[in-house]
Amino acid sequence: MKRKISIAILTLILILSAAVPAAADFDIETRDSIVVVETCIDMDGAVYSFGWGTGFFVGEAGKSPQYLVTNHHVIEDFLKNGAGDLVQGLYGETLMTGRSKIHVYYDSSDFEEAYVVDYDELKDVAILRLGSPTDKRKPLKLISPTDDMVGSTIYAVGYPGLAENILADSTSNWGKSDASVTSGTFSRILTTSGTGRVNVQLDCVIRHGNSGGPVVNENSAVLGIATWGAANSEESVNYAVSIDEAITLLDRNNVKYEMWTEPAPVTDPETDTVVVPPPEPDNNTTLYIVIGAGVLILVLAAVLAVVLKKKKTPEKKPGNGNGQNQTPEAMSSHGQPVVRSLSAHNRGVSAAIRGGQITIGRVRNECAIVFPEGTPGVSGRHCALSWDPAIGKFILTDLNSTYGTFLENGQRLTPGVPYALRSGDRFYLGEKSNMMSVGLE
Hints:
The protein has 441 residues and is of the alpha+beta class. The protein folds into three domains: 103 residues, Thrombin, subunit H; 106 residues, Trypsin-like serine proteases (Thrombin, subunit H), CATH 2.40.10; 104 residues, Tumour Suppressor Smad4. The chain is built from five helices and 25 strands. Helix 1 packs antiparallel against helix 4. The radius of gyration is 28 Å and the shape is globular.
Protein backbone atom coordinates (compact mmCIF):
# COMPACT_ATOMS: atom_id res chain seq x y z
CA MET A 1 0.00 0.00 0.00
CA LYS A 2 2.94 2.35 0.60
CA ARG A 3 3.84 1.88 -3.03
CA LYS A 4 0.33 2.90 -4.11
CA ILE A 5 0.47 6.05 -1.96
CA SER A 6 3.90 6.96 -3.41
CA ILE A 7 2.59 6.53 -6.95
CA ALA A 8 -0.37 8.80 -6.18
CA ILE A 9 1.93 11.52 -4.80
CA LEU A 10 4.27 11.23 -7.81
CA THR A 11 1.31 11.49 -10.17
CA LEU A 12 0.14 14.63 -8.36
CA ILE A 13 3.57 16.23 -8.66
CA LEU A 14 3.62 15.53 -12.39
CA ILE A 15 0.14 17.01 -12.80
CA LEU A 16 1.09 20.18 -10.92
CA SER A 17 4.28 20.61 -12.94
CA ALA A 18 2.29 20.20 -16.16
CA ALA A 19 -0.14 22.90 -15.00
CA VAL A 20 2.50 25.62 -15.44
CA PRO A 21 1.66 27.63 -18.59
CA ALA A 22 3.51 26.40 -21.71
CA ALA A 23 4.56 29.95 -22.65
CA ALA A 24 5.87 30.78 -19.15
CA ASP A 25 9.32 31.59 -20.61
CA PHE A 26 8.01 33.96 -23.31
CA ASP A 27 9.06 37.56 -22.63
CA ILE A 28 5.82 39.54 -22.94
CA GLU A 29 7.82 42.70 -23.69
CA THR A 30 8.66 41.23 -27.11
CA ARG A 31 5.30 42.62 -28.23
CA ASP A 32 6.64 46.15 -27.60
CA SER A 33 8.78 45.77 -30.72
CA ILE A 34 6.35 44.59 -33.41
CA VAL A 35 3.85 46.33 -35.68
CA VAL A 36 1.41 45.67 -38.49
CA VAL A 37 2.84 46.47 -41.94
CA GLU A 38 0.06 47.28 -44.42
CA THR A 39 0.42 48.08 -48.12
CA CYS A 40 -2.22 50.13 -49.92
CA ILE A 41 -2.80 52.52 -52.82
CA ASP A 42 -4.23 56.02 -52.46
CA MET A 43 -6.15 56.94 -55.61
CA ASP A 44 -7.55 60.49 -55.52
CA GLY A 45 -8.10 60.22 -51.77
CA ALA A 46 -9.71 56.76 -51.85
CA VAL A 47 -7.44 54.22 -50.09
CA TYR A 48 -7.49 50.57 -51.21
CA SER A 49 -5.65 48.05 -49.04
CA PHE A 50 -3.53 45.29 -50.63
CA GLY A 51 -3.18 43.41 -47.32
CA TRP A 52 -0.90 43.29 -44.32
CA GLY A 53 1.87 41.39 -42.57
CA THR A 54 4.05 41.93 -39.50
CA GLY A 55 7.32 43.76 -38.92
CA PHE A 56 9.73 44.28 -36.02
CA PHE A 57 12.12 47.07 -35.09
CA VAL A 58 15.90 46.84 -34.80
CA GLY A 59 18.35 49.39 -33.42
CA GLU A 60 20.42 50.29 -30.39
CA ALA A 61 19.13 49.42 -26.93
CA GLY A 62 17.69 52.38 -25.06
CA LYS A 63 17.21 54.45 -28.21
CA SER A 64 14.05 55.06 -30.22
CA PRO A 65 14.19 52.85 -33.33
CA GLN A 66 13.67 54.00 -36.91
CA TYR A 67 14.28 50.83 -38.94
CA LEU A 68 12.27 47.65 -39.12
CA VAL A 69 12.50 44.23 -40.77
CA THR A 70 9.78 42.32 -42.64
CA ASN A 71 9.39 39.90 -45.57
CA HIS A 72 9.77 41.02 -49.17
CA HIS A 73 6.42 39.44 -50.05
CA VAL A 74 4.70 41.65 -47.44
CA ILE A 75 5.59 44.76 -49.48
CA GLU A 76 5.47 43.10 -52.91
CA ASP A 77 2.19 44.76 -53.96
CA PHE A 78 3.65 48.17 -53.04
CA LEU A 79 6.61 47.50 -55.33
CA LYS A 80 4.46 46.21 -58.19
CA ASN A 81 2.18 49.25 -58.11
CA GLY A 82 4.71 52.02 -58.64
CA ALA A 83 6.74 51.69 -55.41
CA GLY A 84 5.53 55.10 -54.30
CA ASP A 85 5.83 56.85 -57.67
CA LEU A 86 2.81 58.63 -59.12
CA VAL A 87 0.64 56.23 -61.14
CA GLN A 88 -2.54 56.58 -63.15
CA GLY A 89 -5.28 54.10 -63.91
CA LEU A 90 -8.78 53.90 -65.34
CA TYR A 91 -11.65 53.12 -63.01
CA GLY A 92 -14.47 52.57 -65.48
CA GLU A 93 -14.15 55.64 -67.67
CA THR A 94 -12.60 57.79 -64.94
CA LEU A 95 -8.84 58.45 -64.98
CA MET A 96 -7.51 58.29 -61.41
CA THR A 97 -4.13 59.31 -60.04
CA GLY A 98 -2.41 58.02 -56.92
CA ARG A 99 0.51 56.35 -55.14
CA SER A 100 1.08 53.03 -53.41
CA LYS A 101 2.13 53.38 -49.76
CA ILE A 102 3.38 51.37 -46.79
CA HIS A 103 1.74 52.06 -43.44
CA VAL A 104 3.12 50.93 -40.09
CA TYR A 105 0.35 50.53 -37.50
CA TYR A 106 0.88 50.90 -33.73
CA ASP A 107 -2.82 50.15 -33.34
CA SER A 108 -5.82 50.30 -35.67
CA SER A 109 -6.15 54.09 -35.35
CA ASP A 110 -2.48 55.10 -35.09
CA PHE A 111 -0.12 54.66 -38.04
CA GLU A 112 2.60 56.38 -40.02
CA GLU A 113 4.18 55.91 -43.43
CA ALA A 114 7.30 53.80 -43.94
CA TYR A 115 9.77 53.74 -46.83
CA VAL A 116 11.81 50.96 -48.43
CA VAL A 117 15.53 50.98 -47.65
CA ASP A 118 16.50 47.72 -49.33
CA TYR A 119 15.14 44.28 -50.12
CA ASP A 120 16.13 40.87 -51.47
CA GLU A 121 13.35 39.09 -53.32
CA LEU A 122 15.09 35.69 -53.40
CA LYS A 123 15.84 35.76 -49.68
CA ASP A 124 12.35 37.24 -48.99
CA VAL A 125 13.67 39.99 -46.72
CA ALA A 126 13.01 43.76 -46.69
CA ILE A 127 14.28 46.67 -44.58
CA LEU A 128 11.96 49.65 -43.99
CA ARG A 129 12.52 53.08 -42.46
CA LEU A 130 10.23 55.56 -40.73
CA GLY A 131 10.50 59.28 -41.41
CA SER A 132 11.93 59.72 -37.90
CA PRO A 133 12.62 57.50 -34.86
CA THR A 134 9.57 56.42 -32.84
CA ASP A 135 9.18 56.15 -29.08
CA LYS A 136 6.14 53.88 -29.51
CA ARG A 137 8.22 50.73 -30.01
CA LYS A 138 11.55 49.27 -28.85
CA PRO A 139 14.24 47.44 -30.86
CA LEU A 140 14.82 43.69 -30.56
CA LYS A 141 18.24 42.06 -30.35
CA LEU A 142 19.28 39.46 -32.93
CA ILE A 143 20.96 36.04 -32.70
CA SER A 144 22.29 33.85 -35.52
CA PRO A 145 20.56 30.44 -35.60
CA THR A 146 22.94 27.51 -35.06
CA ASP A 147 22.60 23.75 -35.07
CA ASP A 148 22.97 23.52 -31.30
CA MET A 149 19.61 25.36 -31.00
CA VAL A 150 17.77 22.34 -32.47
CA GLY A 151 15.18 21.13 -29.97
CA SER A 152 14.95 24.45 -28.14
CA THR A 153 11.72 26.37 -27.60
CA ILE A 154 10.92 29.26 -29.92
CA TYR A 155 8.00 31.70 -30.31
CA ALA A 156 6.42 33.28 -33.39
CA VAL A 157 4.83 36.69 -32.78
CA GLY A 158 2.60 38.52 -35.23
CA TYR A 159 -0.82 39.55 -36.47
CA PRO A 160 -2.48 36.61 -38.26
CA GLY A 161 -5.68 37.58 -40.07
CA LEU A 162 -7.56 34.65 -38.54
CA ALA A 163 -7.18 36.18 -35.08
CA GLU A 164 -9.38 39.12 -36.12
CA ASN A 165 -12.35 36.98 -37.19
CA ILE A 166 -15.89 38.32 -37.01
CA LEU A 167 -16.87 35.91 -34.25
CA ALA A 168 -14.09 37.05 -31.92
CA ASP A 169 -15.27 40.64 -32.47
CA SER A 170 -12.37 42.09 -30.48
CA THR A 171 -12.84 45.63 -29.19
CA SER A 172 -9.29 46.43 -30.32
CA ASN A 173 -6.89 45.18 -32.96
CA TRP A 174 -3.40 45.74 -34.31
CA GLY A 175 -2.14 47.03 -30.94
CA LYS A 176 0.62 45.57 -28.74
CA SER A 177 -1.77 43.41 -26.75
CA ASP A 178 -3.45 42.13 -29.93
CA ALA A 179 -0.31 40.37 -31.17
CA SER A 180 -0.67 36.57 -31.26
CA VAL A 181 2.03 34.29 -29.85
CA THR A 182 2.51 30.63 -30.80
CA SER A 183 5.21 28.42 -29.29
CA GLY A 184 7.03 25.47 -30.81
CA THR A 185 10.35 23.76 -31.36
CA PHE A 186 13.39 24.72 -33.40
CA SER A 187 13.47 21.69 -35.73
CA ARG A 188 16.43 22.19 -38.08
CA ILE A 189 18.35 24.59 -40.35
CA LEU A 190 18.20 24.09 -44.11
CA THR A 191 19.22 25.89 -47.29
CA THR A 192 16.80 26.32 -50.21
CA SER A 193 18.19 24.99 -53.47
CA GLY A 194 18.61 27.62 -56.18
CA THR A 195 18.26 30.71 -53.99
CA GLY A 196 20.71 29.70 -51.26
CA ARG A 197 18.29 31.13 -48.69
CA VAL A 198 18.90 29.82 -45.18
CA ASN A 199 15.70 28.78 -43.39
CA VAL A 200 14.78 27.59 -39.94
CA GLN A 201 12.19 24.80 -39.81
CA LEU A 202 9.90 25.04 -36.80
CA ASP A 203 6.66 23.49 -35.62
CA CYS A 204 4.87 26.50 -34.15
CA VAL A 205 1.86 27.74 -36.10
CA ILE A 206 2.41 30.45 -38.75
CA ARG A 207 -0.64 31.86 -40.53
CA HIS A 208 -1.30 34.56 -43.12
CA GLY A 209 -0.48 37.88 -41.45
CA ASN A 210 2.35 36.39 -39.36
CA SER A 211 4.66 36.94 -42.34
CA GLY A 212 7.51 39.29 -41.50
CA GLY A 213 7.11 38.83 -37.75
CA PRO A 214 9.94 37.79 -35.42
CA VAL A 215 10.67 34.24 -34.35
CA VAL A 216 12.41 34.60 -30.99
CA ASN A 217 14.03 32.39 -28.39
CA GLU A 218 13.38 32.48 -24.66
CA ASN A 219 15.72 35.49 -24.35
CA SER A 220 13.54 37.46 -26.81
CA ALA A 221 16.36 37.42 -29.37
CA VAL A 222 15.27 37.19 -33.03
CA LEU A 223 16.66 34.15 -34.85
CA GLY A 224 14.30 34.20 -37.84
CA ILE A 225 11.55 35.96 -39.76
CA ALA A 226 8.24 34.05 -39.96
CA THR A 227 7.67 33.39 -43.65
CA TRP A 228 5.76 30.37 -44.92
CA GLY A 229 4.36 26.92 -44.32
CA ALA A 230 3.57 23.75 -46.25
CA ALA A 231 0.99 21.04 -45.62
CA ASN A 232 -0.44 17.83 -47.04
CA SER A 233 -3.14 15.48 -45.84
CA GLU A 234 -0.92 14.07 -43.08
CA GLU A 235 1.30 16.83 -41.72
CA SER A 236 2.31 20.47 -41.85
CA VAL A 237 5.60 22.32 -41.39
CA ASN A 238 6.48 25.99 -41.03
CA TYR A 239 9.57 28.00 -41.85
CA ALA A 240 11.32 31.23 -40.95
CA VAL A 241 14.04 32.97 -42.95
CA SER A 242 17.26 33.03 -40.94
CA ILE A 243 17.89 36.44 -39.38
CA ASP A 244 21.37 36.28 -40.96
CA GLU A 245 19.71 37.06 -44.32
CA ALA A 246 18.38 40.33 -42.85
CA ILE A 247 21.71 41.11 -41.18
CA THR A 248 23.34 41.11 -44.63
CA LEU A 249 20.97 43.90 -45.76
CA LEU A 250 21.34 45.81 -42.48
CA ASP A 251 25.14 45.79 -42.80
CA ARG A 252 24.97 46.79 -46.49
CA ASN A 253 22.92 49.87 -45.57
CA ASN A 254 24.80 50.75 -42.36
CA VAL A 255 21.70 50.22 -40.24
CA LYS A 256 22.63 49.78 -36.59
CA TYR A 257 21.42 46.76 -34.62
CA GLU A 258 22.49 44.74 -31.59
CA MET A 259 23.28 41.04 -31.29
CA TRP A 260 22.25 39.14 -28.18
CA THR A 261 25.12 37.79 -26.10
CA GLU A 262 25.22 35.60 -23.02
CA PRO A 263 25.42 37.83 -19.91
CA ALA A 264 28.87 37.80 -18.32
CA PRO A 265 29.03 35.89 -15.01
CA VAL A 266 29.12 37.97 -11.83
CA THR A 267 32.17 37.25 -9.66
CA ASP A 268 32.45 37.78 -5.89
CA PRO A 269 35.61 39.93 -5.52
CA GLU A 270 36.37 38.49 -2.04
CA THR A 271 36.17 34.81 -2.95
CA ASP A 272 36.82 35.15 -6.72
CA THR A 273 33.92 32.75 -7.35
CA VAL A 274 31.00 33.08 -9.72
CA VAL A 275 27.84 34.26 -8.03
CA VAL A 276 24.77 32.29 -9.10
CA PRO A 277 21.79 34.69 -9.10
CA PRO A 278 18.54 33.47 -7.54
CA PRO A 279 15.78 32.54 -9.99
CA GLU A 280 13.56 35.40 -11.08
CA PRO A 281 10.38 35.57 -9.02
CA ASP A 282 7.28 34.13 -10.61
CA ASN A 283 4.12 36.06 -9.79
CA ASN A 284 2.22 32.79 -9.92
CA THR A 285 4.54 30.81 -7.61
CA THR A 286 2.51 31.48 -4.45
CA LEU A 287 -0.69 30.59 -6.24
CA TYR A 288 0.79 27.30 -7.48
CA ILE A 289 2.02 26.43 -3.96
CA VAL A 290 -1.37 27.12 -2.38
CA ILE A 291 -3.25 25.16 -5.03
CA GLY A 292 -0.70 22.34 -4.92
CA ALA A 293 -0.88 22.05 -1.14
CA GLY A 294 -4.66 22.02 -1.20
CA VAL A 295 -4.83 19.38 -3.92
CA LEU A 296 -2.18 17.28 -2.15
CA ILE A 297 -4.22 17.25 1.05
CA LEU A 298 -7.34 16.20 -0.84
CA VAL A 299 -5.51 13.42 -2.68
CA LEU A 300 -3.89 12.05 0.48
CA ALA A 301 -7.28 12.14 2.23
CA ALA A 302 -8.85 10.23 -0.66
CA VAL A 303 -6.04 7.64 -0.67
CA LEU A 304 -6.39 7.18 3.10
CA ALA A 305 -10.14 6.69 2.74
CA VAL A 306 -9.58 4.02 0.08
CA VAL A 307 -7.04 2.24 2.32
CA LEU A 308 -9.45 2.17 5.26
CA LYS A 309 -12.29 0.96 3.04
CA LYS A 310 -10.15 -1.83 1.57
CA LYS A 311 -9.32 -3.05 5.08
CA LYS A 312 -13.03 -3.39 5.85
CA THR A 313 -14.23 -4.71 2.47
CA PRO A 314 -13.21 -8.09 0.99
CA GLU A 315 -11.28 -7.67 -2.24
CA LYS A 316 -13.32 -8.33 -5.38
CA LYS A 317 -12.10 -9.13 -8.83
CA PRO A 318 -13.16 -6.66 -11.49
CA GLY A 319 -16.30 -7.84 -13.23
CA ASN A 320 -19.33 -6.70 -15.19
CA GLY A 321 -21.95 -8.05 -12.81
CA ASN A 322 -22.28 -11.35 -14.65
CA GLY A 323 -19.18 -13.02 -13.32
CA GLN A 324 -17.14 -12.08 -16.42
CA ASN A 325 -13.96 -10.08 -15.98
CA GLN A 326 -13.68 -6.82 -17.95
CA THR A 327 -10.54 -5.88 -19.81
CA PRO A 328 -8.90 -2.47 -19.09
CA GLU A 329 -9.93 -1.34 -22.58
CA ALA A 330 -13.58 -2.18 -21.94
CA MET A 331 -13.60 -0.46 -18.58
CA SER A 332 -12.09 2.75 -20.00
CA SER A 333 -14.42 2.93 -22.99
CA HIS A 334 -17.19 5.55 -22.87
CA GLY A 335 -18.97 4.63 -26.07
CA GLN A 336 -18.60 4.25 -29.80
CA PRO A 337 -17.07 7.22 -31.71
CA VAL A 338 -19.81 8.59 -33.96
CA VAL A 339 -20.28 11.54 -36.30
CA ARG A 340 -23.84 12.77 -36.79
CA SER A 341 -25.25 15.13 -39.39
CA LEU A 342 -27.43 17.94 -38.03
CA SER A 343 -28.35 19.03 -41.55
CA ALA A 344 -31.80 18.75 -43.08
CA HIS A 345 -30.10 17.71 -46.34
CA ASN A 346 -29.53 14.15 -45.12
CA ARG A 347 -32.02 13.91 -42.24
CA GLY A 348 -29.74 13.41 -39.25
CA VAL A 349 -27.85 10.39 -40.55
CA SER A 350 -24.90 9.18 -38.45
CA ALA A 351 -21.83 7.01 -39.02
CA ALA A 352 -19.72 5.05 -36.56
CA ILE A 353 -15.93 5.36 -36.77
CA ARG A 354 -14.67 1.83 -36.08
CA GLY A 355 -11.19 2.03 -37.53
CA GLY A 356 -9.18 4.12 -39.95
CA GLN A 357 -11.00 7.19 -41.21
CA ILE A 358 -14.29 7.94 -42.90
CA THR A 359 -14.99 10.49 -45.61
CA ILE A 360 -17.87 12.98 -45.74
CA GLY A 361 -19.10 14.55 -48.96
CA ARG A 362 -21.27 13.94 -52.05
CA VAL A 363 -19.59 10.86 -53.60
CA ARG A 364 -21.94 8.02 -52.69
CA ASN A 365 -19.57 5.05 -53.04
CA GLU A 366 -16.72 6.72 -51.10
CA CYS A 367 -18.40 8.71 -48.32
CA ALA A 368 -19.78 7.32 -45.05
CA ILE A 369 -22.10 10.32 -44.75
CA VAL A 370 -23.43 11.39 -48.15
CA PHE A 371 -24.95 14.78 -48.93
CA PRO A 372 -27.28 14.99 -51.94
CA GLU A 373 -25.78 16.09 -55.25
CA GLY A 374 -25.90 19.87 -55.53
CA THR A 375 -25.93 20.55 -51.76
CA PRO A 376 -24.60 24.13 -51.40
CA GLY A 377 -21.12 24.26 -49.85
CA VAL A 378 -20.33 20.53 -50.02
CA SER A 379 -17.61 19.06 -52.26
CA GLY A 380 -17.45 15.49 -53.59
CA ARG A 381 -14.87 14.31 -51.03
CA HIS A 382 -15.09 17.21 -48.63
CA CYS A 383 -13.42 16.12 -45.39
CA ALA A 384 -12.17 13.08 -43.49
CA LEU A 385 -12.77 12.09 -39.87
CA SER A 386 -11.03 9.52 -37.67
CA TRP A 387 -10.82 8.59 -34.00
CA ASP A 388 -7.52 8.55 -32.09
CA PRO A 389 -7.93 6.36 -28.99
CA ALA A 390 -4.48 7.35 -27.71
CA ILE A 391 -5.60 10.92 -27.06
CA GLY A 392 -9.35 10.29 -26.91
CA LYS A 393 -10.17 12.79 -29.65
CA PHE A 394 -11.62 12.93 -33.14
CA ILE A 395 -9.27 14.04 -35.97
CA LEU A 396 -10.87 16.23 -38.66
CA THR A 397 -9.06 17.01 -41.96
CA ASP A 398 -10.28 19.15 -44.85
CA LEU A 399 -9.59 17.35 -48.15
CA ASN A 400 -8.86 20.49 -50.18
CA SER A 401 -12.58 21.16 -50.50
CA THR A 402 -13.80 24.02 -52.68
CA TYR A 403 -15.94 25.64 -49.99
CA GLY A 404 -13.92 24.86 -46.87
CA THR A 405 -14.47 23.02 -43.60
CA PHE A 406 -15.20 25.19 -40.57
CA LEU A 407 -15.35 24.81 -36.80
CA GLU A 408 -18.61 25.89 -35.19
CA ASN A 409 -17.03 29.25 -34.27
CA GLY A 410 -16.33 30.01 -37.94
CA GLN A 411 -12.61 29.14 -38.00
CA ARG A 412 -11.71 27.69 -41.39
CA LEU A 413 -9.41 24.68 -41.34
CA THR A 414 -6.21 24.69 -43.36
CA PRO A 415 -6.60 22.06 -46.11
CA GLY A 416 -4.69 18.87 -45.35
CA VAL A 417 -3.87 19.86 -41.75
CA PRO A 418 -5.48 17.57 -39.11
CA TYR A 419 -7.47 19.25 -36.33
CA ALA A 420 -8.44 17.55 -33.05
CA LEU A 421 -12.06 17.66 -31.84
CA ARG A 422 -13.50 16.65 -28.48
CA SER A 423 -16.70 14.72 -27.98
CA GLY A 424 -19.59 17.15 -28.37
CA ASP A 425 -17.75 19.51 -30.74
CA ARG A 426 -19.39 20.65 -33.96
CA PHE A 427 -18.16 21.60 -37.42
CA TYR A 428 -19.75 22.39 -40.76
CA LEU A 429 -19.11 21.94 -44.48
CA GLY A 430 -19.11 25.17 -46.48
CA GLU A 431 -22.27 26.57 -44.89
CA LYS A 432 -23.71 26.42 -41.36
CA SER A 433 -26.74 24.57 -42.69
CA ASN A 434 -24.36 21.60 -43.17
CA MET A 435 -23.53 21.30 -39.45
CA MET A 436 -22.11 18.05 -38.03
CA SER A 437 -21.36 16.87 -34.49
CA VAL A 438 -19.03 14.26 -33.04
CA GLY A 439 -19.54 12.25 -29.88
CA LEU A 440 -19.32 8.94 -28.05
CA GLU A 441 -22.62 7.06 -28.15
